[in-house]
């Protein structure tokens, strides 16, 4: 047992060092918490090496269709969200979506003068989180069984709300239970992509303003806040994913034909770098774009380019589809160059249109956190935010580029 404990401590230090190196841990508070909490106490049946990797989720729970409904998140996600949240000793924090480990990390940071509430909709997860927290010595964390759509009013208000499940919107209860001047970090899904966004609430300012955002992958919200996206199949292996509030309609048979036509490639001369930032720009700077997804088989058989593997925004005009690709180019800053591939009768024009958008991003917004993201609670005047915006159930999300 002693040997195993020593091994766990060594692996934990290595995990923290790796997260620091990747720039995901940036504060001593988060580093100390991640060095202190025994992650293996929350996944006792998983191999230690796996538990302390930075990129692995643990103890997945699957639904009847084999889809994940719960995991202990990968430590790189937990570190990033904790840093985004800016948790300090003495704070009161609500974690939405439980597992135990992340709540223990928050408890380490807030210390004895703070408090942590974690809520999950699944009784099995609540039970497991309670057991893990007791085993690891964090019995002071309040573990609540409820649909978090309604928050946890009995322990409110919270200085920080950290959502650890993919949300489509920010329900009113979360803001009602957040202190003025508080911060909510939420993996918010829009345009069929999830981004972890840290929103700050200011006294006397109606909208929430993002202080940071980054890509992140989460299991979807269940219960009253669940979202219902569509995946429109072009072939059995290639599809277009659109937001649940999308009005896009596609000529599927023309697009199927287009994928069989010879592709037209064009190159931008700009570096391929920070694809997540470029992707956000493409999705929020003009007309709505769907996300192109493909199976591994379709990528391996080169039906679509390999850059589609994790999904990419596509510009679709009638029976023509264009999306960004990359190639090695030692003359660019990143060693790679961004280009466009287009399929279909108007491949030249649609490809040029997308290329122009890529050049605009590279010329004006080629940096991290270039977008200004705001969330406007209430739906009374959805036209008010300037620039790109999307209307959710309880408010309007806006993304501006300036
Ligand atoms: C990624 S897991 C949470 C991981 C956990 N925070 C950790 O770090 O170990 C997401 C959790 O959200 C829960 N969940 C989904 N919808 C929910 C809802 N409406 N209310 C509360 N919990 C929900 C799931 O049951 C799942 O356990």
Name of the CATH superfamily of the largest domain: Vaccinia Virus protein VP39
Kindly name the structural category.
Answer: alpha+beta
End-to-end CA span: 57 Å
Ligands, ions, cofactors: S-adenosylmethionine
Integer count of domains: 2
* Widest sheet: strand ordering: 5-4-3-6-7-8-9-17-19-18
- Low-confidence segments: none
User: What is the share of helical residues?
Assistant: 25-40%
Number of helices: 11
Q: How many strands, which pairing sense, and closed or not: the largest β-sheet?
A: 10 strands, mixed
Annotated CATH topology of the largest domain: Rossmann fold
Identify the CATH class of the largest domain: Alpha Beta
Protein name: Protein-L-isoaspartate O-methyltransferase
Keywords: Cytoplasm, Methyltransferase, S-adenosyl-L-methionine, Transferase
EC number: 2.1.1.77
Family: Belongs to the methyltransferase superfamily. L-isoaspartyl/D-aspartyl protein methyltransferase family.
